[in-house]
Every structure is written in structure tokens, then in C-alpha cells.
Amino acid sequence: MSDSKPHDELETLRHSCAHLMAQAVQELFPETQVTIGPVIEDGFYYDFSRDQAFVPEDLEKIQARMKEIAAQDLKIVRHEISRAAAIKKFDDMGEKFKVEIIGAIDDDEPLSVYSQGDWSDLCRGPHVESTKQIKVFKLLHTSSAYWRGDERNPVLQRIYGTAWNTEKELRVYLKRLEEAKKRDHRKLGKELDLYSVSDEIGPGLILWHPKGARIRHLMEDFWKREHFKNGYEMVISPHAAKIDLWKTSGHTEFYKENMFPNMNIEGKEYVMKPMNCPFHIQIFKTKLRSYRDLPLRFAELGTVYRYERSGVLHGLLRVRGFTQDDAHLFCRPSQIEEEITRVLELIISILQSFGFFEYKIYLSTRPEKYVGAEESWDDATKALENSLRKKKLDFEVDPGEGVFYGPKIDIKIKDSLGRHWQVSTVQVDFNLPERFNISYIEEDGQRHQPIMLHRALMGSLERFFGCLIEHYAGAFPLWLAPVQVILLPITDKHADYANKLAQRLEASDIRTEKDLRNEKIGFKIREAQLQKIPYMIVLGDKEVDSQTLAVRKRRSKETRTLDFDSFLGELKSSIDSRRIDSES
After folding, report:
1. Is 141 a catalytic residue?
2. Active site residue 454
3. On the CB side of 239, how many CA atoms lie within 13 Å of its CA?
4. Cα 279 to Cα 304: distance, rounded to the nearest angstrom
5. By residue range, what is the domain housing residue 132?
6. What is the tens place of the pLDDT at every residue in 124-160?
7. Is residue 584 part of a domain?
8. Residue range 250-263, pLDDT digits in tens
9. What is the count of structural domains for the chain?
10. Given the residues 127, 138, 273, 454, the one annotated as active site
11. pTM of the entire structure?
């Protein structure tokens, strides 16, 4: 555990490289205005305002100019400047976006400007001491972005780059990027016929194809079984509700811009639900609850709708309609720690079943603006921390990053390429129980307000499925594969044997396909490998005569001869254990 997130040397190098890029851009294209240039995971970007779009040849020119500036060994110097002087300085430079940034800063403390040669920019820092220290970098690609993320604002051009300490680190990273392109869930989703998005339906709304829907069914079925085993009750809520519900919850006040427009039905305003929590509260309120009833654990695979700007939509990872693996727990204050511990156990169990064994965990504490008593916050934060320690999970404290209604734990999973994805969260909520005035009868016979825990294990099925596609490069483990076995008869005369085997496998709940096309067996094998089917069964004269199977795994050139029962036993063993078989 660490108590803060240090500004490490690599972050400093990358931030300095972002400034180096901005200087090169403005020297090559003087009409360009700069906005912001933060460090991101594995790199940086800078947003520019320029009428003409950057093309790949421009990136080559910018990178070459960056190397020239770096070689000049320009000292990077920090200057303090008053707010008024900063506004005048950047206004004289024609940097209207910088002026707007400064104008939004309330603090009257001096600002800092970093200069390298004749070029300077408003920045908190820190930076390296000289441009000569910035040696290993590469510009990657461009994209569009709205100023301040608002589609009503001007469209900017974003240039992404990366910087490293050594050439070897850069080569490893670029190789990882190439592998990530091959694993892109949008590419594989189309190639493997898993899902699609239709312009006729609308952006950010997912069509699940039969194979993708089969995997989703397997995910949901497993999720439900595990929840029933862990004391949860399943609930189902509608997709829309009267706007009054969202006024009570506070969503119309704090979340309005992310909600779909209102619908008028019989003179009443309705809204597509952005959250499931108010519905679960309504179920809690249907009868008087006793302390003996608590904890109550309501779980739902609830589809919600959020208005995401079209510019940020991204395959399955950022959508407008998605299904949360949601749950809300109502408990007594004394039960918080035990319930959080149980949730963490379930999270780790579920994630490991899907093949994720490494995590980054963050404990987010009380922000400046919050609801609820300080003592309650301290108790809840301590309960979260104690639960993490009890499960011996390493974590970082993220000071002040809790949501206004309570502290939280966020878990990021590490995939096969070393990337981290935000999925699981556990949040304590002091706000909604008060807003909806829910209560239970305690041992003292008085009404008390329960503590509410929000909890998601996978985050959303869509996003988690996108993670799975990229984690496995579409080659799902046997228990999740939409097609587990494909039968490949060499000629038409072997088709009857293939049909009989298919019936026996399907009767044993093995998802099976047959390739009965009049094609060469080598072609059929390559097609099955492209579809990443775990097992291929080649059937020829030898197999028909001996009533055996020539078994081949998708990543192996070895063919084994097995009888039906031995093969079925191998399949069942792997499926029942949810084994992550790297060879399969």
C-alpha cells in the first residue's frame, strides 16, 4: 500500500516531451494555438486548435523538429507569474484557450510558466531540466477532440505520443501496440461475428450476434449462479421511470447532461434509466424491514442508458446502452466491513474465473464536497481499508477522489498485454438512503437509516466482453467459447459419422458445429483456426472404421486419436474447472 500517487520520473519526462511537441508544432505551423497536454498511461497527448488537419507527413515533420530542438540542449526554466500578468501574456500571444483556462482559475496564488528557448507555456510542472534529456520518443497518431470535452465547443486536433528512458523500452512498447491492434475488439468482433453497431439503429447501441449472445448468456448464467450461492436475490426493474424518481435521487440535478431526453407519456415526463439504484430502493421500501432482514442483497443485470457524446463512443468500451452487473446491499452500520469483505471475495473469484489474476486497487477517500457526517465517512473508509487488508490485497489510497456520497474501492484488471481496465467498484452511499427516506426497525424498536452499498463486479457486460476479446485475442477459453468443437469430415462419405457425433456432443451440452462443405481438409482446418474454435475433429476413413476421433487443438499441429468417451471426459473436465488453457 502507498498513501499517494507520486509524480514519477517517467511522468515528468513524458510531460516535458508533450511541451517539446507543442513547441515543434508552433514553430512549424505558427497559426496553431495550444490548449492542454497531459500525461496519460504510457504516453501523452496535446490538443491543438488549427483549421487544417494534421496528416501523417506532418507528424514526421513534427517529430524531426522535436529531435532538433532536443539536441539544442535548451534549459527548461520555471517562472512564477501573477494571474493578471498571465492573462495579458497569453492574450498578447493570441492564445485564447490559455486565457480561458487562466480565467477559470479561482486561486489568486501566482501561476507558473515553463520556458524553453523562446517558447513558453502555462503549466504546473514539474519538467526535466533540459530538452537534451528528452531522447527516446515517438508520435503515434491523431484524433479529434472537443474543447473541454463539450460537443458545443470548438473541435480540436489531438496528437498522441510516447516517451521512454531507453530505445529498448520504446521498441517493446511499439511491439505491444502492434499486438493490441491485432486484438482490437472492434476488428475481432467483426471477424468472429460477435456483435455489430448499426447506423440505422444509432451509435453506441450494440447488436449482439448469435455467437456473441451465446458468450453473454454464459457470462450471465455463471454470474447468476455465483450470486445465488452468495446470498443475493435477483430483481428486475423497468427501463424507464417518471422524472420525479430522478429528481428525488438527484440525477436531474447532478447528472442531467448524461441522461437521455425526456419522453412525454400521457402528460407525464419519463426518462430512460441511467442507473438501477433508485429502483432497488423502491423494492426495499415496499414493506417494513427489520434488523433481522439485513443485510439485503439485491442484484440485477440491469440495462441502463446514458447520453455519451458521439466523439467518445468506442466499440463495446464506451456505449449509450449497456447492462451493468449491478447490486445494492442494504445493511446495518455494524455490517459494512463484513459485507465489503464478502463483496471483495466474490469480485476476486469472478475475475479469476474469467482469467484475470493481477489488479490495481484504489481506495478513494472523502472529497472536499460531500454529504453525510464526517464520523460516518471515517467509519466507512476504515471498513473498506480493513476489508482490503483482511483479504491481503495491495492497494493505493486516492485522497479526496471518493464520490460525494461515500468512499469507494475501484479495481482495475491487468490483461495479457499488461494494460489495465477499470471494471469492479464498491461504493458506500450515505446520500440515497437519506433522499428516499428509507429505514428499518432496529433492536431498540426505533427506525434507523440503513447503509447502502453500490457494487459492480464486471462494470458492464459490454465493456467486460470487450476486455475479454482483447485479453484472449478472441481465442476464448473452452468454457466460454461460442463453438467448442467443430467436426471436419474429409469427404462427403464421412458426413454421416460427423452428424452422429454432433448429435452425441450436443446431447452432452457441447457446443458443436460441422463443416460439411466440399472443400479440402487443409482449407477447413485453416478456417476453423481463423474462427479460433478450441477443438477440431478431423474425420476420415480411419476414424469411421475405428469409431474414433482425430483431435486437434486450435494452436497445435499435433493430432491425437481418442475414443468418444475419453474426448468427452477431457472436455467436461476443462469446462467444469473453467481452466484457462493457454494451448487451447
Report:
1. no
2. yes
3. 9
4. 12
5. 9-178
6. 889 999 999 999 999 999 998 888 877 778 889 999 9
7. no
8. 888 877 888 888 89
9. 4
10. 454
11. 0.86
